[in-house]
Write a structure and sequence with these properties.
about 190 residues, Rossmann fold, alpha/beta, globular, 6 helices, about 20% strand
Length: about 190
């Protein structure tokens, strides 16, 4: 059985101040506190692989959580992109982050959002990685869940993914069981 845990980034500056550009904002003070509150939970986790969105709010959530893992990678397929006409992220979003972890799948912009997330989910299913932890964004997590749970991706079903929440899935062959959704007890 394969375990996939997904964490949404902490609250971003653009969530509380609409004048802040939403393309690559940092965490707000509350978002930093939410990320730090993940530390106790992270001490109990030992993923084989951590995948990070290269956007600042996601990888800062990872850094502040102080998760220890031998294999950490940025994956461009985890970039946010669920809204109409998602931004064309500049290549500068990758500046300096290679000091944190290697960068994979930089050609994400050549695929539409649905295709790149579908490719990621297919790769997750086929991978021999037994325990995967992902730090990403609401829209991306929403589509990952739909793909893993065989929910119509463009139908009315939507998962409201909260800031700094943990969602856990168990994969067994082609079957998927969601065992936690929006776990936020660490924030209390």
């Amino acid at each position: 059985m394969k375990s996939i845990c997904i964490i949404r980034h902490g609250e971003s500056l653009s969530q509380i101040n609409k004048t802040v550009c939403g393309i690559n904002p940092d965490l707000s003070e509350a978002g930093e506190a939410q990320s730090i509150s993940l530390r106790e939970m992270m001490k109990k986790m030992s993923p084989s692989l951590v995948l990070l969105s290269p956007l600042r709010r996601a990888y800062r959530t990872f850094i502040l959580s102080e998760l220890v893992c031998d294999r950490v990678e940025f994956d461009g397929r985890l970039l946010e992109g669920e809204w109409e006409e998602a931004p064309n992220y500049p290549e500068t979003i990758y500046d300096g982050i290679s000091k944190v972890a290697p960068i994979k799948n930089l050609k994400w912009h050549q695929e539409d959002f649905d295709t790149r997330v579908s490719n990621l989910v297919s790769e997750m299913r086929a991978s021999d990685v037994e325990s995967l932890l992902i730090f990403s964004h609401s829209g991306t997590i929403n589509l990952i869940l739909k793909k893993l749970l065989n929910v119509e991706p463009h139908g009315e079903t939507s998962f409201q993914v909260e800031n700094a929440s943990l969602t856990k899935l168990e994969l067994n062959g082609n079957s998927t069981l969601m065992t936690k959704f929006n776990e936020r007890s660490h924030l209390r």
